[in-house]
UniProtKB/TrEMBL annotation, chain B:
Function: Part of the AP-3 complex, an adaptor-related complex which is not clathrin-associated. The complex is associated with the Golgi region as well as more peripheral structures. It facilitates the budding of vesicles from the Golgi membrane and may be directly involved in trafficking to lysosomes. Involved in process of CD8+ T-cell and NK cell degranulation. In concert with the BLOC-1 complex, AP-3 is required to target cargos into vesicles assembled at cell bodies for delivery into neurites and nerve terminals.
Compartment annotation: Cytoplasm; Golgi apparatus membrane
PANTHER family xrefs: AP-3 COMPLEX SUBUNIT DELTA-1 (PTHR22781:SF12), DELTA ADAPTIN-RELATED (PTHR22781)
UniProt feature, compositional bias: Acidic residues: 777-794, 904-913
Bias-annotated ranges (Basic and acidic residues): 639-675, 726-740, 795-839, 854-870
Protein name: AP-3 complex subunit delta
GO cellular component: AP-3 adaptor complex; endosome membrane; Golgi membrane
GO biological process, any: lysosomal transport
Family matches, as SUPFAM superfamilies: ARM repeat (SSF48371)
The organism of origin for this protein: Homo sapiens (Human)
Annotated Basic residues bias: 741-758, 840-853, 920-929
Chief place where the protein resides: cytoplasm
AP-3 complex subunit delta domain span: 660-807
Amino acid sequence: MIQAILVFNNHGKPRLVRFYQRFVKEIQQQIVRETFHLVLKRDDNICNFLEGGSLIGGSDYKLIYRHYATLYFVFCVDSSESELGILDLIQVFVETLDKCFENVCELDLIFHMDKVHYILQEVVMGGMVLETNMNEIVAQIEAQNRLEKSEGGLSAAPARAVSAVKNINLPEIPRNINIGDLNIKVPNLSQFV
Amino acid sequence: MALKMVKGSIDRMFDKNLQDLVRGIRNHKEDEAKYISQCIDEIKQELKQDNIAVKANAVCKLTYLQMLGYDISWAAFNIIEVMSASKFTFKRIGYLAASQSFHEGTDVIMLTTNQIRKDLSSPSQYDTGVALTGLSCFVTPDLARDLANDIMTLMSHTKPYIRKKAVLIMYKVFLKYPESLRPAFPRLKEKLEDPDPGVQSAAVNVICELARRNPKNYLSLAPLFFKLMTSSTNNWVLIKIIKLFGALTPLEPRLGKKLIEPLTNLIHSTSAMSLLYECVNTVIAVLISLSSGMPNHSASIQLCVQKLRILIEDSDQNLKYLGLLAMSKILKTHPKSVQSHKDLILQCLDDKDESIRLRALDLLYGMVSKKNLMEIVKKLMTHVDKAEGTTYRDELLTKIIDICSQSNYQYITNFEWYISILVELTRLEGTRHGHLIAAQMLDVAIRVKAIRKFAVSQMSALLDSAHLLASSTQRNGICEVLYAAAWICGEFSEHLQEPHHTLEAMLRPRVTTLPGHIQAVYVQNVVKLYASILQQKEQAGEAEGAQAVTQLMVDRLPQFVQSADLEVQERASCILQLVKHIQKLQAKDVPVAEEVSALFAGELNPVAPKAQKKVPVPEGLDLDAWINEPLSDSESEDERPRAVFHEEEQRRPKHRPSEADEEELARRREARKQEQANNPFYIKSSPSPQKRYQDTPGVEHIPVVQIDLSVPLKVPGLPMSDQYVKLEEERRHRQKLEKDKRRKKRKEKEKKGKRRHSSLPTESDEDIAPAQQVDIVTEEMPENALPSDEDDKDPNDPYRALDIDLDKPLADSEKLPIQKHRNTETSKSPEKDVPMVEKKSKKPKKKEKKHKEKERDKEKKKEKEKKAEDLDFWLSTTPPPAPAPAPAPVPSTDECEDAKTEAQGEEDDAEGQDQDKKSPKPKKKKHRKEKEERTKGKKKSKKQPPGSEEAAGEPVQNGAPEEEQLPPESSYSLLAENSYVKMTCDIRGSLQEDSQVTVAIVLENRSSSILKGMELSVLDSLNARMARPQGSSVHDGVPVPFQLPPGVSNEAQYVFTIQSIVMAQKLKGTLSFIAKNDEGATHEKLDFRLHFSCSSYLITTPCYSDAFAKLLESGDLSMSSIKVDGIRMSFQNLLAKICFHHHFSVVERVDSCASMYSRSIQGHHVCLLVKKGENSVSVDGKCSDSTLLSNLLEEMKATLAKC
């Protein structure tokens, strides 16, 4: 079982927080902070497994994480999950994000947290791995996006116009913070059909 | 209304959407909190509007704020409103918000039940999907109970997208509502063979989670999982299954044996590291579960260790970490194989990654031997010096102690060295583990008699340098070692060289800064020391010397009398008075030494930690019984007329007190506590000494002087541990030389005499004799102590509720609650339309339910036995180590007595059995084959009719009163063979796809070469085609997905599509392969003919007698019959044979007449009536296709003719 999935940036700002076990919100924030500090002090070239954060408890649990450019993707899992499998799952998730957002960057995650959640929901459900086949995941997401579009979407035309007007006053939003090298060593991604 | 709408949409123009909110927060970095609270106010306004789009937008923003840590529980009701929107866009937002913020305590959650039910049954698969996803995060026991049935229906949804989600969510439902597990389980099991890989993977996932917690209930699924493991190509599924097997093998060692081979093959063939790693892990689990010392498994261990070495040597730190992790599992059972990689593991101790260093440390535990212990510990000691963080250093410290003390100090040859290591460890500042070192010092000094002299000298040196320890390290607990030092010096004072010096050291004023419990030990042991000094002085006749010591005591003890610690104070006052008394006596020249040392006469022996618990209760002593008659609560009860009741009460006096008024008891307890608290003489349940220290008034004013002395500890005149290593080497060298000499002498002697096997002189552990004769005093245990105490399962484990026996048939009361208004009428025989193989015996049909309870119980028992048998047979393809523990059914007829005794012997040879769809055919192996031949000989000698089979297990539930255990037979038939390879095959119909059969071909390598590049090419006919991978043409061969090392066999499965099944047919094929051995490689070929009989298109399908009767009545079946003479076999065996070879099931059996049923893969019903005459059997058949029937009967005739 996956206990929690956390995504935060190099400064510890949460970008996605998904708990599959109930924690009160203060504890949730504390877990995010603690996990961030645990992960931050580790070099990039040491192993991606961490034993026992004190909050998500017990020796049965491991933190498995990957670091992409500005973002950390952290999965907290118990011993029923394969460590390398989860590493690959993170890769699948990130590559799916990359496909759905077309060259994903941190800003996509910042402004479209809801969409990121919807993508995650097609990968992991209730703490269990739902689908690992990227094509299948992307197909389902696209189908749902089409459905949403046919319904007119949440922000119909007028609101969009307003937001376009609002955009004018803003300093230029940097688009170039790319999530970076997706092709980090993945021992066996291609094996997961 | 219209106006309102317009107004709403105009308002919306100025509403922020999620992006605006995020942007706003980013632009208000300085006053973020203020900005957000302003946004929340806006959101509250938006939620008040009627426009659902506005609401949805607001809820979407709330979800974001929730992530940032803001409370959104107040909006729970609005979230539900958005969930119930008709548009998918809004619904999705609602469910997302709910999944992030709802939990069991959310009170409005019960309002969602009907909405969720509606969404679950929505025609749009994405509505359903979104509801399932959301529900998986906030399902409560109530929701689980109310929706279990709806979700169960969704498990058979037409869309795989829904099916997989429904399957997955079932795990959550089971957790919250354990009663649903049994009714849902058959369907879940069915999903293991779902055509969609996603659904299959989900089902595997759920069952693995379930089985991980309660593995024994899922053992019966092992055959199914085994089949999946050998056929699946999805690595996720494989990993899960392999992990599951790792959990199952400890329960069933025979399963492990079966697994080793396919797992080894996987290890060889896979390129995915994750799969490789899990395979290795499970092989390790298997090897652990098997009794060690099996020669053929050493190869597997070697393989694992080899592969792990590759992982550890990899530059990828992750693989290195996992390699070490798995290595530590092997270590427990096969330390030798890991020890050979010592170099590598020691190397990892220097890794920059702390996770890896810790793993390597774990491994060291098992790497040590008598030979290398000193060397390893020396290395660790250098690490201790280098270690930067205290956590890692503490870890090192505990590991050093662990590896030295393991299995009763097995590896320590020189305890002087160990003591000096411990003393060196006391240099560690800031460690939390002072008490660990102290415990070791005490343990060694007490249990190793020979070392006491040395230990005492070291400890006195420690006491001498106490100022260092006491001052700068008081807070971090290293001063605990002084506890041990003081005790050892006192208890074994006879070994002290300068007792007077030590006595002075222990009476130093600085000692009073130590924690109370250490001071107390000081005080007590000062007296012991004093006693022994007195004795010495008196014996030497130095009266002044003796008096001087007494004077020293009288001078110094008062500092302890003033101690704030009660224990210290009490002991010190006592002893001070004692010494003063001695002083008086000494003044009168009375010899006192004898009497003083009598105070400490006798030896203290170590007592085993659990000794107290294990004292058996003496016979005749009832600890629960009342010593006195229990007092009756009220006088009135003693009245005469109630004597009858009174008597009854007396009969169970044990229950009386528990019935006493609880409140009253609590009140009394409270009163007693009060009383105790006020009683100064009552010793309270030990609060920590530190605490007591603080509690005492006035202590905080006593200044604690911190003295910082950074002089490292050196024990003058005593060798440091490093020197021991050198000394030890020299000693060993000498020993070896001596031994060699002796050996030479002996050899010469042997040469003179008979020549025996000359063993090579190897230096093993046993050769190293310990430096000093160590007699480890064993711990004391009470006489006739009880054997080990079991540790109970945690009663609070949430998964305990799921510990449910899944093999029992369902009872009425266990059905899932169904919403009444959507209840469909249950048909009389549930399997009539959709025969579901898996379910067949699970749901007794209605008629049967009316049967007497007794009968059902009997059936249940039978069924259970059957289940156990199934598994036993499946597992027993390799000979079990002990006589097979298969629960043999009680024989009811004489003839099965014979069969049973023989079956016992033949368990080993079980090649397969009649329940083909339940358990995949076990693979043939060479040695098994031989065995079978052997037993065949045996059979003849016993005059057992050859070829008799196991009675049909499953189908007999309606008839067949007796059960027989018969020699099993394989359904695998020989396909072709040559000197390289032997092919056997079995053809099975599959229910899932129409007109498809699976051909399982077992390839056995009989040569000494490796067979690889195997390809199977089959010439398709018009009627039968082989299913080939996409893009390959009809003439291409289909590769066999494995290689065969010499002597190994493996199974490959191929699917064939059949157009018409009414006729048997044959397909020609060729197996081509490359045989490679030392001399080179050759291309070889083997031709074969696949024979598809009509029987192979049939699938054993159970049928109830009412459905059977209806089928016959319907009249649209054509009929045909055969008769075979000269049959001597018993009717039971005959039926079993038909069931086994022709895939029928018995519907009903009356005397020597039975009706049987089967179904073809294309849905033809086949009904048989089998009658047995004197020496003949007649079979009448009815079938919806006459050609099929006549062909079938011909085949059956051939089978029966052999009987």
